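Figure 3 (text version): structure tokens given as input.
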């Protein structure tokens, strides 16, 4: 189901691999500390539009996870951090990733995939120097997070229903506005 599952492993580094074709997550990080996912090519082949495969999923209890300089494509979602328990995801960093062509299942399907997300239970996340494009729905979103910094990212041509854009570049959920201490600056979004 998951190609790489860190379990509760600490100080794990995955660097320079080709990671492809899983059913659930390509890389799952759960309750782990100081994990680094770097310089990997992460994709699903073939992608038929029905799989819920994520490139990288960081879950409850994980801290100080660095996801950097990866190319992630042909999955349902790119990178997501979320906690469904009392244990938050602390200080995840998404840096220098090229995330593109996610959930490009068909010309008339809208499946709400996102290049990268800080979701509920994420605290003090940092996303910087990433490029998000051709993701069905949007580039980057936050939802019920605290202390997020989002800077120096580029998002373009998101939402496959219109090959010239139509989705969003950056979005905070309208019902869960970014909390005090969050920072969004020096990002570029165009043709979304």
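Below: residues designed for each position.
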């Amino acid at each position: 189901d998951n190609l790489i599952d860190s379990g509760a492993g600490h100080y794990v580094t995955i660097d320079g691999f080709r990671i492809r074709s899983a059913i659930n997550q390509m890389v799952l990080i759960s309750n782990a500390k100081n994990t680094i996912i770097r310089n990997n090519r992460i994709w699903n082949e073939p992608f038929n539009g029905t799989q819920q495969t994520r490139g990288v999923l960081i879950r409850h209890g994980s801290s100080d996870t660095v996801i950097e300089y990866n190319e992630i494509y042909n999955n349902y979602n790119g990178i997501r951090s979320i906690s469904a328990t009392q244990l938050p995801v602390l200080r995840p960093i998404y840096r220098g990733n090229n995330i593109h062509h996610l959930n490009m299942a068909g010309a008339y399907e809208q499946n709400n995939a996102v290049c990268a997300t800080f979701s509920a239970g994420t605290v003090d996340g940092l996303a910087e120097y990433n490029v998000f494009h051709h993701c069905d729905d949007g580039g980057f979103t936050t939802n019920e997070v605290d202390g997020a910094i989002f800077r120096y990212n580029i998002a373009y041509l998101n939402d496959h229903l219109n090959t010239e854009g139509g989705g969003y570049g950056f979005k905070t959920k309208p019902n869960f506005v970014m909390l005090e201490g969050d920072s969004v600056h020096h990002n570029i979004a165009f043709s979304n």
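The chain is about 0% helix and 45% strand.
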